[in-house]
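Notes from hallway chat w/ T.B., transcribed later so I don't forget. T.B. wanted the structure written out for a chain they're using in a teaching module, and asked if we could keep both sequence and structure tokens in one place. Agreed to drop them here.
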Amino acid sequence: MAEPQTTATAGQSADQRGPRRDNRRRPDFVPEEKQFDERTLHIDRVARVVKGGRRFRFRALVVVGDRKHKVGIGIAKGADVTAAVTKATDVAKKHLVAVPLYKGTLPHETDAKVGGARILLKPASAGTGLIAGGVVRTILEVAGVSNALSKSLGSTNKANTAYATIAALQSVTPASTWITKKAPAKKTTAAEKPAAAKAAPKPKKSEK
């Protein structure tokens, strides 16, 4: 009677298979953490009129940040949604800006206007959270701002609102540049005192 064939190759038993290529069963395997937090803010379908009709593509608005002090936004188009998001993410990573933070919030009040959109940002005390919505809230979150107040004025266009928020964050001055220490009081010597400052003789009491 013929022996059943095994799936192992010649000279190698079935129990001596090689390790998995992705190493998912290794006890010391740790998945790689993402360096940036990537958020898709808006996806729109755009059309271009050509000779044979209209050609549709997708436009993606993406924000990227490290949740510490860097943030960037990017807009790109692609034949499908995945390609548009990938291109926009690469654009955002190439245009990161540093946001100076002070105790989890902004050092001072700031505002900026891009197109018809105007964004006003204000610092807030600890525990307030982010009083913002939509695009502004997402950008502040990935930038690492924990407490802030905001107000969106004018246009509601998401692209202009995002660029206005980035412009407002870029205009923030670090707290280390405007917080100054008081200079110690200068001691005056006897030679520098004016002559009028010398003690005058006491007036004599009037005789009764």
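Follow-up for T.B.: The two ends are 151 Å apart (CA to CA). Might be a good example for the class.
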